[in-house]
Amino acid sequence: MRFSFAFSALLLGELAYAEYDARNAFKKAERTIPATPEHPRLNKRASPFYTEKTKRFWVNGKAIPDVPFDVGESYAGLLPISTSKNETRELYFWFFPSANPKASGEITLWLNGGPGCSSLRGLLTENGPFTWMPGTFKPVQNSYSWTNLTNVLWIEQPVGTGYSQGVPNITNEVELGLQFIGFYKNFVDTFNIHKYKVYITGESYAGFYVPYIADAFITANNTDYFNLKGIAINNALIGDRTVAADAVMAPFVNHWSQLFFLNQTFLTTMNERAAACNYTAYVNKYLRFPPPQEKFPLLPPLYTDPVYTCDMYSDISEAATLVNPCWNLYHVTETCPRPYNVLGGVNDFDYVPPGLAIYFNRSDVQTAINAPHVNWFQCTDVNVFANQPTRSTNYSIGNDKSPGPGRDGALQRVIEYTNNVIIGSGNLDFVLPTNGSLLSLQNVTWNGLQGLQSYPGKPFYVPYHPEYNGGSQAGAGILGSFGTERGVTFYQVQLAGHELPGYSPGAAYRVMEMLLGRVKTLDESAGPFTTQPYGNFTKGGTIKKRGARDL
Q1: Sequence-distant (≥ 6) Cβ neighbours of residue 522 within 8 angstroms
Q2: Which of 406, 433, 536, 550 has an alpha carbon 20 to 30 Å from 446's alpha carbon atom?
Q3: Residue-wise pLDDT tens digits, 170-192
Q4: Is 317 a catalytic residue?
Q5: Is the bond preceding 290 in cis, omega lying within 30 degrees of 0?
Q6: Which CATH topology does 12-244+384-546 take?
Q7: Dihedral (C-alpha) 196, 202, 205, 210: value to the nearest 10 degrees?
Q8: Quick check: is 143 catalytic?
């Protein structure tokens, strides 16, 4: 089957597929459930994690600056990447145990990308127990926190990222993986979580990190420490940068032309350049289901062309910004005004109000979470891959010398070892469009065949939330599509952007349930969220909401 453009058409009428009346349910819930409880009641239990070894990492959940509620049990601080007495390189972590009984004996790791972007960004704006979204007044409880499902560890890595300490000296992902497993072994010993099942997750450039780290877990061959059970990545770079982005950007703009609203002269020139750069023919030949059973050739590097003729990314970004000065390449529907972010800016166009105190740069916050008092950046200006020349190949980003994990066998080994790999994409992401992820995946061979044999077009159904929390809402019903073949699930969410768990937290929550083995599929037959069997969404999670009788 040939599929020249892989976005599925999601019909509004499909929402009627669900039998749940969300609007009336929300009205009812508003009468009984406070939207922002001032003093939520915590699940009380003896903690197996608080010991002589770990008490120096304990965080007072009632004393997180500007957070008006108890975030629950957590531990944070620095641990070295080796057992050497002279080791100066340390990674910063924040660990939140879950009160869910099903979380016993398992842990999920979360990594943001970059390279060099802090995983605290994911904690605070995507999947942590409290979130502080751009443009909002203060943090709120996250009804879709992954800690409701399992124990979660956010890690700032590699060395040089966030609060992590030391001088970066890695040159590739294999070295990164070795440093990471050194840190994680120390974490396991410190918190006594030997033999725990490990699930590794992340987004964006973590499409490199996660498979390579998972491959390092496999190579270590020690399930006392590295008991890998699956990985999940979204909006992830897993292959060649040109294939994953520039090659598919013209069809992306054509598909969303009413959102971009670029003039016809620009669109004509854009499509002519895509054809001249061999992008159009490449996509038409290789983005098929099933794909040609052959290794796809590399496209010419962008940076060897002195005038960057085939750099579609930059030219389209500039044109889009002229039409919409607040255009967001991570979620292309956004317009002015641009909301500020308490984490500060990442790109030149990010709005940082004069005098804004970057949250994780505040000394009171750093003291509260056992962080070093250093100048914290959401994405570091330090090169975390040391002593490498400027980008010399079309897959070398941030001076990482490694090829994509989909090209060198790392991703294949992880799939065949776990048979539990989930790859997702938000369809409104311009940085790494859905078609680029699919095109990269079609170049990977696993379990006897190359790529997906059928287009992942089954309806992705997300359950409705039975409680109302005005500060933490998510879409429900049919939000996208998915498919599962030979141990790999690929899904897409129509209205999500680059940071998928932030834009569509309900969808990400359901994906986590599948990764952990709580549900077997992403369609409607999976039923309600596993944490709401009796209508209480956060039952078993870190924070328990008050019912009507508690008011």
Answers
A1: 458, 460, 461, 482, 489, 491, 510, 511, 514
A2: 433
A3: 999 999 999 999 999 999 999 99
A4: no
A5: yes
A6: Rossmann fold (3.40.50)
A7: 20
A8: no
Q: Which residue has the higher pLDDT, 370 or 398?
A: 370
Half-sphere exposure of 11 (CA within 13 A, CB side): 5
Confidence class of residue 5 from pLDDT cuts 50, 70 and 90? Answer: very low
Interval 231-244: pLDDT, tens: 999 999 999 999 99
Contact 513, 127 (CB under 8 A): no
Q: Which residues contact 338 (CB under 8 A, 6 or more apart)?
A: 326, 328, 349, 350, 351
Closest alpha carbon to 95 in 31, 27, 49, 126: 49
- The one catalytic residue among 143, 204, 481, 504: 204
| pLDDT (0 to 100) of residue 306 | 64
Q: Which residues contact 83 (CB under 8 A, 6 or more apart)?
A: 182, 185, 186
Q: Residues 6 or more apart from 69 whose CB is under 8 A from it?
A: 37, 38, 39, 40, 130, 141, 543
User: Is it the case that residue 214 has pLDDT exceeding 60?
Assistant: yes
User: How far is the C-alpha of 133 from the C-alpha of 122, rounded, in Å?
Assistant: 11
Strand runs labelled E in 285-376:
none
Residue 194 a catalytic site member: no
Q: What are phi and psi of 258, to 5 degrees?
A: -70, -25
- Residues 6+ away with beta carbon under 8 Å from 222: none
3-state secondary structure of 274: helix
- Given 429, 437, 472, 504, which residue is catalytic? 429
| 178 token code pair | 């070795």
Beta strands in 118-196 (DSSP E): 130-131, 140-141, 152-156
Interval 16-22 mean pLDDT:
34
Determine the Cα–Cα distance for residues 74 and 288; give it in Å rounded to an integer: 46
- DSSP state, 117? B
Q: Using one digit for the tens of pLDDT, what is the confidence trace for 35-77?
A: 333 333 334 346 899 999 999 999 999 999 999 999 999 999 9
SS3 279: helix
Q: Span 396-419, mean pLDDT?
A: 89
- Total residue length of the chain: 551
Interatomic CA distance for residues 427 and 481, integer angstroms: 11
The string of pLDDT tens digits covering residues 121-168 is 999 999 999 999 988 899 999 999 999 999 999 999 999 999 999 999
Q: Please report the pLDDT score of residue 10 as a whole number.
A: 40
For residue 396, the model assigns a pLDDT of: 44
Of 499, 246, 278, 283, which Cα lies nearest the Cα of 397?
A: 246
**Under 8 Å between Cβ of 397 and 127:** no
Q: Which amino acid is at 240?
A: D
Both tokens assigned to 334: 């956004």
Cα–Cα distances (Å) from 6 to 110, 186, 274, 456, in that order, read 28, 43, 17, 9
Cβ–Cβ under 8 Å, residues 149 and 103: yes
Residue labelled with tokens 């966030």: 162
Backbone Cα Rg of the chain: 23
Which tokens hold the place of 199?
């699930």
Can you give the pTM of this predicted structure?
0.88
Amino acid, res. 318: E
Per-residue pLDDT at 319: 97
